[in-house]
Amino acid sequence: MADFTIELLDAAAAEKLTDSIVSVYRDAFSSPPWEKPASGVDRFANVVFPKHLGREGFALTVAHNLDGKVVGFCYGFIGHHGQYWTDYVAERIHPSLEKAWLGGHFEIAELAVDHADRSHGIGRSLLTVLLDSRGEDRMALQTLAQPSPALSLYESLGFSPFGEFDDFVILGKRRS
Phi/psi at 172 (nearest 5 deg)? Predict the structure, then answer.
């Protein structure tokens, strides 16, 4: 039996968990290899996450431990041209790849699990439940290009690279 549960939420329900989501984000991204400063966590809490809550098709999965504490989350929305990430990637990849992958895709914006709760399948469950709830034909995300548990997870779920720049790799997956 799993020592966690996964719940799929819409934007209104996700907004009610903002403090817990920010806490997990802080834990997950304030240490190597990310090492986000407090200002980066504050920006996520006060600018990025609230903006993403309003995006078309927003959905979030959240993991609770047996005590009910939020220990992980994964969310995304429909990516369109005119949004920061879609335009950022489009400027850095070949136009044929941009046309094939971007615009109307499901963009996985964040996946985070508390350090103490990693290596128990939570990240895989969060992402799998989220993707299984979607109907878009293309999914895309960005992660560090260096070998990491996150990169291994995405590749094991069928994501493959379609762009790489700076220290990041852009991965995509098509529905079968």
Answer: -135, 160
